[in-house]
Design a protein that fits this description.
six-stranded mixed β-sheet; 5 helices; five-stranded mixed β-sheet; alpha/beta; 291 residues
């Protein structure tokens, strides 16, 4: 396959992303907010389950804290020097020792069941519809769509001096990643130099990028919009400047974006589209150009 020049590909990506974003009025744009409490809103089934598990653990730890606090208050009231001038000399109580050993084990087992279930669920998609390959570099990301025949392109943070209206400092990138909603996406992640970590809070994804190793995760985005993430592994002096910007669009809009990216490329095989065949997409484009 003939590889395009980086400048041409970058210009095409920027133009396509701008057009696609304009077609999604009122879409969700999830990002950190000042004085935010709690996790970001869930955009995938994985994050929904992570939220549920977080809430379960919050209930468990709250009950344990209240119980321990109650014991401390009771002990301070019942066994202070004034109420209990002659302390007991009992050194062992078999029942109490058995209880304080068995009860924590039961609590851990209660937590382990949903924990392992969630780990298996978030590990990989059983039948993905498309694949995204993420490459971690010092200090930017590279994205590749093998099924769509889109070669790797670079996504770098927008410098402060080049920020435009609507851009977010330290979060906006030069070439945002475009992904379809309602699609099981297999995400393969690796590093090309040092350890990185591809993390998108709204997706419930935080997967390490390791040199010479391909790690796997998945996502099914349920709502169109713009989502942000960041490298979450200390990877050097540029670690804080590796943002992730994802534009989630409809499956039809994603196919349109794919057709724009492969236009003019010498393809060995047609790109995989989600809503129509490649031949139908080419015919539609030819009709549109003729009109």
């Amino acid at each position: 396959m003939k590889m395009p020049r980086w400048g041409t590909l970058g210009a095409g990506l920027a133009s396509a992303v701008a057009g696609i974003t304009a077609m999604v009025p009122g879409a969700l744009a999830d990002q950190p907010h000042p004085l935010q409490i709690g996790l970001q809103d869930a955009a995938t089934p994985v994050m929904e389950r992570l939220n549920s598990f977080h809430n379960l653990l919050l209930v468990v730890i709250t009950l344990i804290t209240i119980f321990v606090l109650g014991l401390l208050v009771y002990v301070m009231w019942r066994f202070n020097a004034k109420r209990n001038p002659t302390p007991s000399r009992t050194s062992h109580n078999t029942l109490i020792e058995v209880v304080w050993t068995v009860v924590p084990v039961i609590i851990l087992l209660f937590i382990a069941v949903p924990s392992f279930s969630l780990l298996y669920y978030m590990n990989r998609s059983e039948d993905p519809e498309m694949t995204l390959i993420v490459h971690g570099y010092q200090w930017y990301w590279g994205y590749e769509f093998p099924d769509q025949q889109i070669p790797e392109f670079e996504s770098r943070m927008v410098p402060d001096a080049e920020l435009q209206e609507g851009d977010l400092r330290l979060l906006s990138v030069t070439e945002p990643l475009v992904l379809p909603v309602d699609t099981d996406i297999q995400i393969l992640i690796r590093a090309e130099d040092v350890l990185h970590s591809w993390a998108v809070p709204s997706f419930g994804i935080k997967t390490d990028a390791v040199p010479m190793r391909m790690n796997e995760t998945w996502a099914r985005i349920e709502q169109e919009g713009v989502y942000y993430g960041m490298c979450s592994e200390l990877c050097g002096e540029g670690h804080g400047f590796m943002p992730i910007e994802i534009h989630a669009v409809s499956r039809e809009a994603f196919d349109d974006w794919v057709m724009e990216q492969v236009a003019g490329l010498d393809l060995e095989e047609p790109p995989h589209l989600l809503t129509r065949s490649y031949e139908d997409a080419v015919n539609q484009n030819q009709v549109a150009e003729a009109e």
